[in-house]
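Researcher: Please predict.
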Amino acid sequence: MLETGEGDCRLNMAVDEALFQAYDSAVSLPVLRIYGWNPPALSIGLFQNPLEELDLVECRRRNIDFVRRMSGGGIIFHDKELTYSIVCSESDIQKACFAKEIYKYLCVFLIEAYRAMGLAAGFSLSSNKAPRSGWVCFQGREKYDIVIGGKKIGGNAQRRRRGLIFQHGSIPLYTRPGWLAGLLRGRLPDDCGSPYSLSQAAGRDITSEELKGYLIESFQKSFSARLIRDTLNPAEDGLRGQLLTRKYETDRWNLHADSNPDKAFVAQ
């Protein structure tokens, strides 16, 4: 397990991908990473076009940076939140390796963490997808998204490559109503509202340290695992530096509007 603290948006995504690229299914142990975002920033899904989705002038005026994720999904405003990422192989899971089944399996520890906090969390069994254009993560709901009291909490996305699985997810502790809408080129639907935060669901303030404790405990319980605290090894740290400077800090990656922007960065 890695607790990497708070980082800026581009560093956070470089660390996530370094862990994914460096994972060797023959010798690596499954990884749980927990981290935060400072300063607040936007992330966009792999196939989104920031020139169409984001008001970049307003983002610069408010000093809000953005980064393209290596995973799909919609726009997320990362502020007062905790984010997790998991890296493992299909053989680590030893279950049916269909994307939705893996997604559900890996989200079980989140359900257990929320329930341990006294919240009635469960999986959504229906889909209500947001339109592709202007898609923000909390707008749409897909099967196996997590809901508390009928409201979607957080967002999770997955990436798979050569038998390896990467999944990360954002858990908002608090939200700032109206902030995301002001950073978008398009207009959010009137009934879209703001992301549902954990503190709203609990009816009290939830700190990142409190949530982190529940996540760690529920991960170990859900997967019958013993987490060992660790840091990036030399190979991972080297990849992190390369990915940060050659990919996540470049306009070529973040502003790329191709239908598959990742293709230019497959070989690092």
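Model: The first helix runs from residue 9 to 22.
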